[in-house]
Amino acid sequence: MTTPPTAPPEGAAPHRSGFACFVGRPNAGKSTLTNAIVGTKVAITSSKPQTTRTVVRGIVHRPDAQLVLVDTPGLHKPRTLLGERLNDLVVTTWAEVDVVAVCFPADQKPGPGDRFLVDELAKVRRTTKFAIATKTDLVTPEQLGQHLLAIDRLGRETGTEWAEIVPVSAVNGDQVQLLADLLVQRLPEGPQLYPDGDLTDAPEEAIVAELIREAALEGVRDELPHSIAVVVEEMGLREGRPADKPLLEIHANLFVERSSQKGIVIGHKGSRLKEVGTAARHQITAMLGTPVYLDLHVKIAKDWQRDPKQLRRLGF
Ligand SMILES: Nc1nc2c(ncn2[C@@H]2O[C@H](COP(=O)(O)OP(=O)(O)OP(=O)(O)O)[C@@H](O)[C@H]2O)c(=O)[nH]1
């Protein structure tokens, strides 16, 4: 029997591929760790990731594996129905990835916010859970020991089984490679999900556009399966705001193909567009950590999916 050309050489470890996501309180060190694992160039793909509600933050390409790091919006104690629905969305995403890694900064004791997050995570049965003690360079070995014990305790108290508890410092690179290896070990066998070259610098505009598109598709996916495109026209911090009260101002256009679709997106007297705006705003705020002013306009780009010029304009 001949071996198919795609099979790994005999004795070689099988190629693995899959998704992991870092979660944790604001400032836990998630982005810095992502950068450390992926390399200096954090990447995002233009193609749609397999999981629907996530944004690809970076891709680790290795001969033996492809590890795709995705972002989910932050989890918050829900005060409103929308808040609850956003949290449900996060939990759904956790169920779609292979590993969720909770970051606990070593210079802070795990608190009620961490417990809430871990409690929610515990509901996601199948996904592998890692605990990461981040910023280990900021504490003494004794303090780190206490921290690891606290993480272990939190796991037991919430019924969460940590597959690994890994201390890392993204700043001095300590244990970052080990963490990458441990994550890869938990990925299923599978081919590369993205081509090697499929990386560009991560523009926050792309993330924002994707979040708006997701919000706009919510509930109308069947009616408008692929007809919505979003382009962020302008995005920047509003000038003249105090440093501790930044406001991210975003102007975006939502393109549909026909006027009937415009009606669906806008809704009765604009009610639906308002909901879309609110949901997107919450998502963007949760993702980027800055309060957002979002200005959304719906436009028709006739049959954009069939028009190469329009497609380019819309970033495809
Ligand atoms: N000393 C030290 N500082 C770190 C380390 N990792 C991150 N930091 C710092 O901690 C702060 C927060 O790091 P981020 O990576 O932005 O944290 P984050 O979890 O992505 O934050 P949000 O985007 O707010 O959720 C930054 O000032 C980092 O420089 C580390 O390993 N050691």
Structural notes for this entry:
The chain has helices spanning 30-38, 81-96, 112-122, 141-158, 176-185, 204-217, 259-266, 271-288, 308-313, and strands spanning 16-23, 43-44, 55-61, 65-71, 99-105, 128-134, 162-167, 200-201, 229-237, 248-256, 292-300. With 316 residues, it is of the alpha/beta class. The chain folds into 2 domains: 16-185, Rossmann fold, CATH 3.40.50.300; 203-313, 2-Layer Sandwich (GMP Synthetase, Chain A, domain 3). A hairpin with a 3-residue loop joins strand 3 and strand 4 (65-71). Helix 6 runs antiparallel to helix 8 (271-288). The chain is globular. Residues 1-6, 40-53 and 198-202 have low confidence and may be disordered. The structure holds guanosine-5'-triphosphate (GTP). Residues 24, 26-32, 134-135, 137-138, 169-171, 289 line the site of guanosine-5'-triphosphate.
List the helices and strands and how they pair.
Layout: E1 16-23, H1 30-38, E2 43-44, E3 55-61, E4 65-71, H2 81-96, E5 99-105, H3 112-122, E6 128-134, H4 141-158, E7 162-167, H5 176-185, E8 200-201, H6 204-217, E9 229-237, E10 248-256, H7 259-266, H8 271-288, E11 292-300, H9 308-313
Parallel strand pairs: 1-4, 1-5, 5-6, 6-7, 10-11
Antiparallel strand pairs: 2-8, 3-4, 9-10
Helix pairs in contact: 6-8
